[in-house]
Amino acid sequence: MNPELNKVESYSVPDLEERKRLSDFAPGIFKTIFSKKGIKKAIKKGYITINGDVGYTSDYVNGGEIIELFQQKEAPKKPIIDVPIQVVYEDDYLAIVNKPAGLLVSGNKKFTLQNALSFNLQKSKQKDALSYPEPIHRLDYPTSGALLIGKTTQAVILLNKMFEEREIQKKYFAITIGHQDDSGIIEASVNVKASKSEYIVVSRLESRKYESLNLVELVPFTGRRHQLRIHLASIGNPILGDIKYGKEGLLGKGNGLYLHAFSLKFYHPFLKKDLEVSVSLPKKFIKLFQKK
Q1: How far is 243 from 239, CA to CA, in rounded Å?
Q2: Domain count, the chain
Q3: Mean per-residue pLDDT, 109-137
Q4: Are 65 and 40 in the same domain?
Q5: Rounded distance between C-alpha atoms, residue 154 and residue 269, angstroms
Q6: Contact assessment for residue 81 and residue 115, using Cβ atoms and an 8 Å cutoff
Q7: Residue 61 phi/psi, 5° resolution?
Q8: Structural contact between residues 96 and 151, judged by C-beta atoms closer than 8 angstroms
Q9: Does residue 202 share a domain with residue 138?
Q10: Residues facing residue 53 across a β-bridge
Q11: CB atoms < 10 A from the CB of 149, how many?
Q12: Which of 22-36, 56-70, 241-255 has the lowest mean pLDDT?
């Protein structure tokens, strides 16, 4: 095995009625990684072995095998950038920050929100404190608002699981264009996957260019990439400033996408209490609707 890796967990496979692929069997057997996506990523990196040999997604387990999970001995160093980020809520386990529009959450680039977290957050005093706090979910590059951050290893594991099981409620606000029903549920598939969003029009503003501008409250029940943007465009009410899904000639210029992650609500797994945190609407939202 790679000497740069440490063994984290070991699992003894019980007798199985029928053999299963490693990628189908492994999700749920480890405490550190539980999701199918996480397991596939670990297999791809060579972090999972079967009876001492590196496992592959196409390998089968029949029963009686020892499956082991490894991780790197030292986390690779990441750049820390001095970019101020508004911290809306913080405790020793997690934080909620206000992601600015026009900033990547993470990636190979230096200037990402993730690389600014260590500069903006206090280091956890817990034994499993992370040197580099981790975003639990993603917001699109042009989207602003509430982003949940894990500050300890256990927090990242539990919060990821809560997202997988849809135990974290998210609410967004957007400004859409065109005449729109007062409320509705959209269930158009996204990338051939079942998806569901609900909207309520909070306020309207007549517009010569757009017919109507609508301040819309949104609740996504699933978490597909670009889900809200695709859903609103599918009913003929794309989000103002949406270059990718907007209507030609009505894209707007200069002020970006009018989509904001407003709040997160969930049961705090460590403090054992309900937590609901909201992030004020950006000035560009307020500026439009204060005219009414």
Answers
A1: 9
A2: 3
A3: 92
A4: yes
A5: 10
A6: yes
A7: -115, 140
A8: no
A9: no
A10: 50
A11: 27
A12: 241-255
pLDDT of residue 292: 47
Give the C-alpha separation, 100 to 282, whole Å: 9
| Structural domain includes residue 287 | no
Q: Specify the pairing of strand 144-152 against strand 259-268.
A: parallel
Residues whose CB falls within 8 Å of the CB of residue 81, separated by 6 or more in sequence, listed in order: 110, 111, 115, 116, 119
- CA gap 48, 45 in Å, rounded: 8
The kind and range of the H/E element at 287 are helix 283-289
Q: For residue 30, give the amino acid letter.
A: F
pLDDT per residue as tens digits for the range 128-168:
899 899 999 999 999 999 999 999 989 998 999 899 889 99
pLDDT band per the 50, 70, 90 thresholds, residue 76: low
* Angstrom distance (rounded) from CA 135 to CA 104: 11
E-state strands within the chain: 5-12, 20-21, 48-50, 53-54, 60-61, 66-72, 86-90, 94-99, 129-135, 144-152, 169-177, 183-186, 197-207, 211-220, 259-268, 273-278
Domain CATH number, residue 17: 3.10.290.10
Count the residues in the chain. 292
pTM exceeding 0.85: no
CA 130, CA 125: separation in Å to the nearest integer?
10
Q: Which amino acid is at 205?
A: L
C-alpha separations of 153 from 4, 17, 156 in Å: 20, 35, 5
Structural domain harbouring 126 = 86-165
Residue 37 pLDDT > 60, yes or no? yes
The H or E element containing residue 159 is helix 153-164
